[in-house]
Amino acid sequence: MDTQDIISSLLIGAISSTIVALIGVRSFKSYYFDLQKRKELGPLKEFWTPLKANKIERFLVLYGIDDKSFDALEPRISYAKAMGLGELESTLNMIYDSGLDVRTRSLEVNEKLQQSDFDDNLIIFGGELSLKVFQDINNSLNVPFKHTKDQGDKFQLCDPHVTYKSDIQEKKLICDFGTVTRIINPITGKLIILLNGTYAAGLFGSVLAITRKQNFPEGGFDQNSSQQIVIQVSDINDNIVRSNHIPVAKSNWTNFSITTAQIQDMVQQASKDFED
Known about the structure:
This protein has 7 helices and 12 strands.
C-alpha cells in the first residue's frame, strides 16, 4: 500500500468515525441503507415514500372481487390485479426491506371502507366498475382524469380538455390507457395510490409504471405534491399485458390540490362508519 492509499484510508476512517459519533451507529446504517436504495431504485424510492414515514411502514391494498366479465373483449380483469399485487409487494419489499407491513383485502362492488383504512398508506385497484367506492373517491377529490362512457356506451378516459379511447380492432385490444394517481393525505402525511385502467391491460400497465425503475415516468414528478399521470400500453397480444411490457406516459405528471376538508368529506363518503 503506497502513501496515497494510506492517507485515503485514514481520511475515510476519520470521516466515518465522525459521522458515527455525531448521529450514532444505527442512524449511520439507516442513512447508508437509504442511500443505497435510492441508487438502486431511483425515483421509485421517492414515489413510495410518504411525507411522514415510520420505522415500520404500513400499506393496505384494496381490490374488487370480479365475479363476471365486464366486457366480452376480455374474459376477466382479475389477472391484472393478481399480477399487480405481486409487482407491488416485490417493489415495496425492495424499498423497505424488513421495515414493511403489507396487508391486502378484497371488497364487494358496493362495499364501503373503514375509516381506519385511511390511517395507513392506501393502494386501491380500480376501476369504477370494480368498486363504487373508487368512483366516490375520484369524484370527492376531483382527480384530473376520470373514466366516463361515450355515446356508444364504451369507457373512455378524459379530463375537460383531452380524451383517450382504447384502440379495439375485431374484438382485439391493440392499445389501452390507465392512470396512476398519487395523493398525499394532508391529515396523516400518508399516501393514497389509485390505480385505474380502461381495461385490464391499462390497469396492469399503470402498476408496471410505478414498480419498475426503467418504466417510471419522471417528467414533472414531485414527491411533495398530489399528482396524476396517464399511461398508455400498446402492442397488446391476446388482450393481455405481461410483466415485460413497457408502458409509456402520455404526458408529464399533473399536479392537483387536495385540502383537508376534501379528505374529510371523502373519508365520510367512502366509509361505512358514517352510514346511517
